[in-house]
Every structure is written in C-alpha cells, then in structure tokens.
Amino acid sequence: MTGTAPETIATSPEAIATLLAKSRYLADESLATAIFLAIRLGKPLLLEGAPGVGKTEAAKAIAEVLGRSLVRLQCYEGIDAAHALYEWNYQRQLLAIRHAGENEIDIYDDRFLIARPLLQVLKAPERLVLLVDEIDRSDHEFEALLLEFLSDFQISIPERGTLSAASQPVVILTSNRTRELAEALRRRCVYHWIGYPDAEREAAIIMLRAGGVAEATARAVANAVQNIRARPLAKPPGIAEAVEWANAATILEKGGSPWPEAFRRAVGVLIKDEEDSTYLAPDFGKIIEEALA
To answer: Per-residue pLDDT averaged across 3-29, rounded?
Structure first.
C-alpha cells in the first residue's frame, strides 16, 4: 500500500505538529520545523539527544503520519554492508548453477539479491520510512558507507551497477552522541537536538501516552522526574520511563497502595541502575512528597 505523499502533509511546521499529536507524539515548534524542512528539502533528518528523549518514537510517529511502514536499521559496532545494504544468497546461486547445467544463468538476478534496510527503502520509497537508529554506535567506516545513500539516495552494487530511488525516500537518523559523528554525514542532514521536556510538557506527554493516569499523577511524576534528572546519575530516566512510572504507580494505587507508597514501590520501572538507586534512596521520599505537594 502506498503511503501519503510527504509534500501533501508537510504544508507547515504547525500542520506537522498537529498530525504528530494525533499519533500521540507531542513535537515542539523547533522539532516540527526540522521535520517539515527535512521533508520539503528532501534531506535526511538527524535527531540527536540523550537516551530516552523520544528520538526513535519521533521516527515511528512520522511513519504513522505518512501511512508508511518503518524499516529500522539498528546500528552496532561492526555493522557492515551485508547488514545495511544487501547481500547475495550464495546458496541459491550455487543451486541455480547446478540446475542450469550447460545453460547460461544470471546469478546476479533479483531473485538472488537479499535486500537489507537501505536497499529495501530504495526499492519502495513511497511505502517505507527508513530509521537508522543509534548511528553513533557504528564506526566511521560505516558512516562513510552511508554517504552515497544519504547524498543521492542511491547505492552501488558492483555486479549490478548503481541503483537509485524512484522518488525521494524519507530517512531519519538518531544519535545518542556517545561519539562525534563525521562532518560529512552531518552536512547531508537537517539537524535537530532533542532535549528533555520541561515539567509541563512532560506531564502532557504522560497524559497522552499513559492509559488511565490522572492529571494530578502525571504532574507529580513530571515534577519528580525533573528533580531526579537534575542529579548526577549514571542513567537518568527517559520519557518512556516516566510514562511507565505513572502507569505502574496508578496500577499499584488501584490495587490498594496509597500515595506516596505507590510511587516508591514502582521505582523499579523508573531507575534502572543500582548505583543510581542507592544514591537516590535517602532523598527519594522527599522528592515524591515535594512532587505531590
């Protein structure tokens, strides 16, 4: 099924923000503008920020708004062309050669080509959105491998030549900034830094994404999480953890645990590092009391 043409929805940053909100993603003006410009300029969108601020969720929401499937390429150290671009099905090639006997056979036909995420999107740009997730986990060699794709939306296959997208694909890259990305890659993208939201926006996000959570609970969670993130933690809680905490505390409260005990008992879905948990323990009760006040 063909999705919506990007230019038909990208009429303005405000229109983008409204459509994303319908997909349960609250984008501020700067993020909506970056998405709008990436779509209208036909450039990849590079979203950078701390883990848990909603970079991957933004890509999912963009795909949903466009009515397209999301193809996710999860990066890791050592990722190569065979995982990102394509590879040949050598077993099928050998079988085909044996069956062909004396007859000629093209072993580089499409039926022997295994399309990986980048090639999948090049072959069906009107139906797919590509997410190159956590590009900073890959190495510089892999970044260099991406440059041709990000510049001209094409890839070169030695046995087949250059394959280009029939139309402009929508491509989103995310980075947690565990290392600096190459300047050549950055130049090819529309860039946006996503920071943690303020308490008011985070409460709105919790209300939007958590089921059955009262507004007072959402505001208390947002206030507490703002306080917690301001401390020197190894792994500050992301927005997803805040949503989970609100849900978990609500479930416990409905099961008989009163406030603020429900918040304390549900802390395991918020803080997921032993040293952070030990560090926060002496002040956690006070943090919750202040948030509920």
So the answer is: 87
Distance of CA 108 to the CA centre of its chain: 34
> Pairing state of beta strands 45-48 and 190-193?
parallel
Residue of 61, 60, 59 lying closest to 44 (CA atoms): 59
Measured distance CA(273)–CA(277) in Å, rounded: 6
Nearest to 152 by CA among 133, 171, 134, 126: 171
pTM of the model: 0.90
What is the per-residue pLDDT across 152-168, written as a single tens digit (0 to 9) for each?
A: 999 989 888 899 999 99
Other beta carbons within 10 angstroms of residue 268's beta carbon come to 11
59's tokens? 């890509």
Mean pLDDT value of segment 128-133: 98
Spatial distance between the Cα atoms of 245 and 263, rounded to a whole number of angstroms: 8
